[in-house]
Amino acid sequence: MSELFGPEGWSAIFLSLKVSLWATVVSVPLGIAMALLLARGRFPGRGLLNGLVHLPLVLPPVVTGYLLLVLFGRRGALGGWLEETFGIVLAFRWTGAALAAGIMGFPLVVRAIRLAIDAVDPGLEEAAATLGASRIRIFFTVTLPLILPGVLAGAVLGFAKAMGEFGATITFVSSIPGETRTIPSAIYGLLQVPGREPEVVRLVIASAVLALGALGLSEWLARRVRVR
Amino acid sequence: MSELFGPEGWSAIFLSLKVSLWATVVSVPLGIAMALLLARGRFPGRGLLNGLVHLPLVLPPVVTGYLLLVLFGRRGALGGWLEETFGIVLAFRWTGAALAAGIMGFPLVVRAIRLAIDAVDPGLEEAAATLGASRIRIFFTVTLPLILPGVLAGAVLGFAKAMGEFGATITFVSSIPGETRTIPSAIYGLLQVPGREPEVVRLVIASAVLALGALGLSEWLARRVRVR
Amino acid sequence: MIEIDFTRTLGDFTLSPTFTAPAGVTALFGPSGAGKTSVARAVAGLLKPDTGRITVGGRELFGPSINLPARKRRVGYVFQDARLFPHMAVLANLRYGGTRDEADVIEMLGLRPLLDRYPADLSGGERQRVALGRALMSGAELLILDEPLSALDAPRKAEILPWLERLRDVARVPILYISHDVSEVARLATTMVLMENGRVTRAGPTMEVLGDPDAVPLVGVRDAGALLFATVLAYDEADGLTTLTIDAGQLILPGRLGAPGDRVRLRVPAQDVILALERPQGLSALNILPVTITALTTGRGPGVAVGLAAGRDRLLARVTRRSADAMKLTQGQELFAVLKATAIATYDIGT
Amino acid sequence: MIEIDFTRTLGDFTLSPTFTAPAGVTALFGPSGAGKTSVARAVAGLLKPDTGRITVGGRELFGPSINLPARKRRVGYVFQDARLFPHMAVLANLRYGGTRDEADVIEMLGLRPLLDRYPADLSGGERQRVALGRALMSGAELLILDEPLSALDAPRKAEILPWLERLRDVARVPILYISHDVSEVARLATTMVLMENGRVTRAGPTMEVLGDPDAVPLVGVRDAGALLFATVLAYDEADGLTTLTIDAGQLILPGRLGAPGDRVRLRVPAQDVILALERPQGLSALNILPVTITALTTGRGPGVAVGLAAGRDRLLARVTRRSADAMKLTQGQELFAVLKATAIATYDIGT
Amino acid sequence: EPLTIFAAASLAGPLDEVAAERDDVAIAYAGSGAIARQIDQGAPADVVLLANTDWMDWLDGRGLVTEPRLLFSNRIVLVAPAGAGTVELTDEGLDVALGDGRLAIGLVESVPAGIYGKAALEGLGLWDEVSTRLAEAENVRAALALVARGEAPLGLVYATDAAAEPGVSVVADLPEDSHPQILYVGALIAGNDAPGAAEFLDAVASHPAFPDAGFLPVDE
Ligand SMILES: Nc1ncnc2c1ncn2[C@@H]1O[C@H](COP(=O)(O)OP(=O)(O)OP(=O)(O)O)[C@@H](O)[C@H]1O
Ligand SMILES: Nc1ncnc2c1ncn2[C@@H]1O[C@H](COP(=O)(O)OP(=O)(O)OP(=O)(O)O)[C@@H](O)[C@H]1O
Ligand code: MOO
Ligand SMILES: [Mg+2]
Ligand SMILES: [Mg+2]
């Protein structure tokens, strides 16, 4: 079994899983908040914020990676502050890979959730309000359960994107074995050398199996939570 | 004005627009069909098909690009057949760039539409059926108008993704000026040369403006078609 | 002609209705949750029976080897919830299934000022009127109306009912009608099907079911009453009264109820019939009929249901037990029934 | 005490209701599209008036400087469409706003077998019962009921109405009640507000509005009738009849209507009152009251609305013009009103 | 029909200058591996320029190119953010210069600059010291950017890139014999006798833009 991918392959697989899970776990709640803001909020600059969220989709990944480097590198505006204030280092760390993956997937997460929010019947939220529920309670007991299929869809899109993200990740945190060399980075490296195709194929399959497993899981969950 | 980007820059911008528009125009109807199949169909292999649609999201873009190259290259299994039978050449043509961009964005298009389909009240389709409407008519007069916001969301995601797609495109169709050098490929080329950063920045801005323009347009349209 | 005999389980609820109804209006009547809507859905092709058969007007809609899709059943269905298309204005909604009698339907339902509105901007009753209009305009071969008038005020109901009667009698469209309102049912229904707990407990001509003292508890005490067929004799322009003949004599009722010779039917609520041992004098009630007691049914409450024969017509009266005792009512006894003209007002008269 | 005076435009519809209602049940009555639901939404905080003031029990809910959010208004709202939470089972729906009187509410509404079901698996009437239960259990300080009983069968209504009466009288929860059914309104409502086209056309104590011959066209011919207050004298176990006194004499009605001394109110539909020049004998109708004609109103139809004074109580009768002529009815004339006991059945009696 | 050149991205600067002198040349830049596979799939190239002899051998072995020829060589240098002092090519020297930072380099298994860089570090006996402290980048320009941004205190890049990037200073030259020769190879596509292709290849080989950019002639 361990020979199937070799130690480097396994390390890339575990790392990809860790990075993608974290990227998903962090971006889903933020995505819900952002989707709510965009769907319900009425404030100046809403269009701009919407655009900003979509930007990683539009820009070539390398550019996004470079922007991340400029912002969150150790010499970057936010990176230095994060390190001094919270001791959080992103550059060349798996955390940075998770950040890159999360940001690249964020537009997908937000969109899926926003579509679900737009489909919620406001009458149900009205009913909850007349029953004395606070906004927070309405959100957690009515809105959130109703948008769960959308949240799940967003999560699986974010996870899949994180599993496949390459350009922004390698530009921002480079490719350090065991730290930031995710499956796509490993595959990219292998593809640059003649004759390593079999390893590429194995990693591709591993990646596909993991992501499609997540997809299957999300579909199953969605069926379970689907509004009756 | 023409000096802002130089002839090569303009050519990349027009090409990106052409490629992205075609990718969107073709993938939206296919995405609707696929979303319907996945949301409503009950057939063996549905899970697999779902996985296949999501694959381009999961795989590193370069891998997708190689797969496309192997399949649709002039020596590829499908590429040769397409060329002989229909005279369609994809490899190293802008059409191939559109194919790559379309395939990379397809999972996003399908997801957005599928979420919208799942939110359609089946009672309305029942009502249409009792009024004698055929499945086709129900689709075009009830289902489609009701999912339009989702279709628009899918279209804008697909378009934005197409504007930003790089890895699969350059791997499949290379970066031939005037034919396949889209904005991201042009940016990649410029990044290889010291001192071209100002041009990069201008192209990034152009790309962002175009995609965000499309985003704004779609939001405006969505508000207009929003179910009352 | 509607023939229904199927079973279908829904969770732990078993629906297994069996009845046959001739052309005309078939009313499904029964408590909330009895399965009325489910029967309607099965007829419309929206709920697939596990086994059985559904035939309408000789066309087999569902059977062992057939399951016609909803769109081919040519059923106009007014749903309990209106189900208007939210993305279409009222006019587009109305026209979706066809444009039969468009102008008339719009007029009758008072929809003219609403045509450009969207469903979200309509009131509850307005929505139901549009849904009704949409079904009426579809030119269906069977209409299913699931509580179509429950959100409407009395004057509006009074405008719509004659239209449904015309559909029944002139266009001869069979109608499956679900309602909790006996006066609606009595007015329209040819056949009455009482349902409870997924099964049919009583089915038959409306006159029989409503006039049957034994059906009083099924229909509800206050809703019991008999149906009479009458023939119009004359209409008096001056005082606005119509004189009708029934088997046992003459009735005088307010309003122009038809041209001489027309057959009309009247519902006489049991609680509006007063019994008198002798023909009373100087009463504002215009209608006094000699009757014979055919049945006396004592229920749990303080009332007694009294079946009456007026010639070949049957009437139902509800009196207190004390009155029954004081008057010494017995089967076969001959006495007088006093019917107050205004209690059998236009609302209960169907042509 | 509900005080309402605001305006709000909805498209080209202008809503500008003005009325004041004391504690108890305030009925909003009027044709479809009159603006009843919109008023209710404004009171509940779901529709913001353009200007004006809304006060309930002294609490200002909306005013020039205040707009209490819906959740702080403590309003239990039963919506015209049930609006159950689709992702919660019935029990969770019921408990969402609170658990006041949980067992009683579940019992009264017959919800016990439905508790584990999801809304999608409920019938129309079941849904409405759950929505009603949810509002009742929320411990609200004001209940808004928008046609809560329209999807229910008569026996079920008869079970629910006494509960609403108890809320009104014992728990003293003010209720805003929207219905098309005058008998419900008459039974429950302290105050009646007639609406048309966004404005209030008549508001006042239910007795006055319903007993007013001039209001007959507004209420609907068949729904007119008077309200009487009566005091229970005795209940006769043997024949199940209650004897009551009103100002003009005694009434005998079926059922146990209360303990001796209790005050009850009765609706006497105008069409169920028969006028007699002389006291009739040998009738199954047990109640005959001497009355004086106070008003004669002739409408467009063949009927005449006759206002009657029975002592200090007022009654309303509806007779045909022919009868009125034949009996030579005139204002001030003294004669007898015959009330059939079963026509004033339990359903119309409120405590 | 313009002449289509598929070229390794690291040749972009001077190659653009060559192309600018002609109006019928289109250049597609990509990584050497991608170019090789595309040629294999029938890419419409007339001339191919790679930074890696392995991929050229791979193409030659398949009979896809004719007349492969060596064009230039290059050098690997150690760079640091502009203004840094020289670094001694010893374990301690590197250790001090790196501090807790990383050495930026192309992917050492696959990107040509990375492969050469690794070979050089091995030749200098420094590999064990730094192999766990690398930041491997997608291509040599990305590695250079890491240094220029100050994210990595050191980087191993082509001398040509170092010369063109004002954000970095060369802090040590690597001895020529510490790594295999860095060779750029060009070839014509087999069976595709585009007029002017051979001439273009000649022009590239002799154009002054390359020496100006720091490319070295090949020692035969
Ligand atoms: N946005 C709008 N634009 C135009 N008209 C509107 C809008 N919203 C509501 N209306 C109109 O306001 C009127 C009042 O509606 P409301 O729902 O209050 O009526 P209602 O009295 O409750 O009627 P029903 O008994 O049928 O439920 C209706 O005629 C409705 O069409
Ligand atoms: N999936 C299900 N699981 C369990 N019970 C169900 C399911 N679907 C429907 N039912 C039950 O079937 C019964 C019949 O429902 P139906 O809607 O036909 O009633 P109805 O007679 O139309 O009632 P109403 O007058 O209240 O509209 C109800 O008791 C309902 O709760
Ligand atoms: O020629 Mo590269 O840019 O080192 O792959
Ligand atoms: Mg029903
Ligand atoms: Mg309403």
Report on the architecture of this protein.
The complex is a heteropentamer, with 2 copies of chain A (228 residues), 2 copies of chain C (351 residues) and 1 copy of chain E (220 residues). Chain A is mainly alpha-helical and 228 residues long. Chain A has a single domain, classed as MetI-like fold, CATH 1.10.3720. Chain A has 10 helices and no strands. Chain A has helices at residues 2-40, 46-58, 61-72, 77-86, 94-118, 122-130, 135-164, 167-173, 183-191, 197-225. Chain A starts with a helix and ends with a helix. In chain C, strands 1, 2, 3, 5, 6 and 7 form a 6-stranded antiparallel β-sheet that branches. In chain C, strands 8-9-10-4-11-12 form a 6-stranded mixed β-sheet, sandwiched between helices. Chain C contains 9 helices and 22 strands. The model of chain C is unreliable at 345-351 (pLDDT under 50). Chain C is of the alpha+beta class and 351 residues long. In chain E, 37% of the residues lie in helices and 28% in strands. In chain E, the strands form 2 sheets. Chain E has a 6-stranded mixed β-sheet with strand order 2-1-3-10-4-11. Chain E has a 5-stranded mixed β-sheet with strand order 7-6-8-5-9, with helices on both faces. The mean pLDDT of chain E is 87. The chains are: A mainly alpha (228), C alpha+beta (351), E alpha/beta (220). At the C-D interface, helix 1, helix 4, helix 5, strand 17 and strand 20 of C face helix 1, helix 4, helix 5, strand 17 and strand 20 of D. One adenosine-5'-triphosphate sits between chains D (10-13, 32-38, 80) and C (121-126, 151).
